[in-house]
Amino acid sequence: MGPKIPVRWNWRLTMVLVCNCHGYSCLNLPLTSQVREASTKATTMSTGDVDETRPLVTDGAGYGATDPGPSVPPPKPEPTPLPMGQILLLSLTRVSEPISFSVLLPFVNQMVLSTGEVTVEEVGYAAGWLETCFSLTQIVFLMLWSRAADAWGRKPVLLCALAGAMISCTLFGFAKHMWQMYAIRVLGGVFGANAAVIRTLFAENCDRTNMATAFAYFSFAASVGGLVGPTIGGALANPVERFPRLFGQSKLFSEHPFVLPCMVVSAYVGGTILLCLLYLREPHHRENSKGGSSKPSTMSIRESLKPPMPRMLVIYAVTVTASFCQGALVPLHLFTPINLGGLNETPSQIALVSAISALFSAIWMLLLMPKLDRRLGTKRLFIYCSAATPVMMVLPVIANAFARTGHFGMSYFALFLFICIGSGAGMTFTSVQVLLNSTAPAGGISTVNGVAQMIAGATKSVGPGIISSIYAFGVSNQILAGYLAWVVMTVIGVILLAASFRVPADYDEKVDAAK
């Protein structure tokens, strides 16, 4: 036997090992790598001295430092109060673009025919080219205006664009020849940058905690403009015949029967110009804090569109395609006879459906979306709304199938579900704008919004026409019982759902990942 080796007892190590071996949590010290290291040292105490003053647990201060317990995610910050004065002013201004675009729709065909330069058979082509001229010109000049907004400031560019919209809308009502109409619509497209600038101002007047609420107002204002514009155009066109007591003796309205709705819309746009001139503020964080200059910094287009921005813009393109095509398809479906695949609704019934849809959209966007965005996060909300899109596209088919068999109660119930779910799925358009602005670099947000508006303009100019042609082809040839266009829309909805999973992590997820 060798010499007897003295062993020095370490009572701290004993307590740690005993408690952990029996699963006790009174010391809240799990058998971590530090304790295992201490246990290994205990078996080799015979070969050297042990410093009992050295703590076994070196990280943290006191008991439980190595096991803080289950991590509790930090609470989300409270939403920053929106500058409601600026948001409401921008919302009123946002109405100006869709209202000046859509006021022409009810009477443009009659106006084209009244020139005597186009036959009845050619009216549709001529009217279509008028809108195409506006959209294509807008696409060409949008990026230039966006860069100008970066260089000169948002407010002067917005005022200039609004003034151009007001002048072009007024002049269109006085046009008597086709070349005049084309020239005026091109002029309107040149100054059609106000939507992109307003979108940028919305983003710069909020932060990540309240952006969903701000863009709910943005989307709602656009919807209001799209509804009010055709209403004004249809109600006030040809006032001499419609309101003979008021305008029967008016030489102006007798010679120019379509100028009154254009003048009313121009007056509205002029009012927004005055309000913006007096009360619109340039965002403070765009000022140069070092030099005190208010001239904003610019970022190159390549820097503004660096990854993941291209991916986000593709997702935005899919979203606006689904939105614009669905908006063009619904009135056609409601008007088409039941035996061909529609619901055979009257114009007044179609207007009622549009009004109910607008009401539900207002409820979803203004009341529910900010709460859902805060609870779920923008990306998850976008995914959920995208998942509802293909489901929504099937409901018009179900409504027609019930109507064909005489079950009109079930048909109207399916239509009601379409309105409810469709209004909720419409939040994809607002959510994708929030995600787009969250992804954009700080110095390139105007450029990004300019590109986004170019995509929206291109989609608006070709998408509704293509899907309407597909619908007409499917109905006239009874392809898939007249449901061909809805099958195409369902496929687009599935593509949108797949694309929603490719959205870059939004702000909430980045914060959680960092922590």
TrEMBL record:
Domain Major facilitator superfamily (MFS) profile: 86-502
Cleavable signal peptide: 1-26
Listed CDD domains: MFS_SLC46_TetA_like
Region (Disordered): 41-78
Molecular function as annotated in GO: transmembrane transporter activity
Gene Ontology annotations for the cellular component aspect, listed alphabetically: membrane
Localization, UniProt: Membrane
InterPro entries registered for this protein in UniProt: MFS (IPR011701), MFS_dom (IPR020846), MFS_trans_sf (IPR036259), Tet-R_TetA/multi-R_MdtG-like (IPR001958)
Main location per the UniProt record: membrane
Membrane topology: Multi-pass membrane protein
Keywords: Membrane, Signal, Transmembrane, Transmembrane helix, Transport
Keyword Zinc (UniProt): no
Entry keyword annotation includes Ribonucleoprotein: no
Membrane-spanning parts: 157-175, 181-202, 214-238, 258-280, 312-330, 350-369, 381-403, 409-436, 479-501
Protein's name according to its UniProt entry: MFS general substrate transporter
